[in-house]
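ugh ok fine here u go
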Amino acid sequence: MFRLLRRMSRYMTALFTGKFNELADPKVQLEQAIMEAQDQHRRLKEQAANVIANQKQTEMRLNRSMEQLEKVNSSARQAVLMADEATKSGDTKKSTDYARAAEAFANQLIATEKEVESLKTLSLQSTEAADRAKAAVGQNSSVLQKKLTERQKLLSQLDQAKMQEQMNRAMSSLSEAVGQDVPSLEEVRDKIESRYAKALGTSELQAETVESRMLEVEQASMDNEAQARLSQIRSQLGIAQPTPQAATAGGGGGEVASGDAAGAKAEEPKPQ
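structure:
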């Protein structure tokens, strides 16, 4: 029973994880990944700072211990010299006191030397740890910079993918119906061509009717009336009437017409 529940729990986790990944915005997920990388880098820097601070503190303790060692060593030497002088001068009490002081300084000197050696080893280890921490921070900084650069590249690719998807949908809508109430471009084109063809057919039929012929006759009458009015105006102005050839030809036709008119005057019979 417990195994079945565990399998069901894993199945539901995988199911909801897949649904979440399918519906989640890639841009938001990318920002989450970058924020997590930045937080990890910040924590690594804090840890490296603690390691470096420990190394600095160890160095300061080592420096103080070495100073103390030098001081104790100097004090022990001075106590030995003073005990020797007291012995030479015959002052037994001072000689004994100085000897005990020298012995105390010697014990302190031994303890300080051990502390200095221990601090040297600790300082060496902390220095190596600090160097490794600095290298880790530098390496992780390079990785983070690559991730930031990759984020810009992925964001650009994501924008291009969205634009391409929109273009694909737009191209699909040109050849496919969007829905039951929205016609496709082909359907609209067929409808427009059908109306245009019907209008052309109707126009051709109207051109063959009696009304269209009557309009042609009326137009011809108007043209003849206009020509007659123009002839009347030319006669009033003393301008010769153009011949049919002059009306249809260019300037050369006018010269031919003038020559023909002169020939016609020459052939008129003289009065008896």
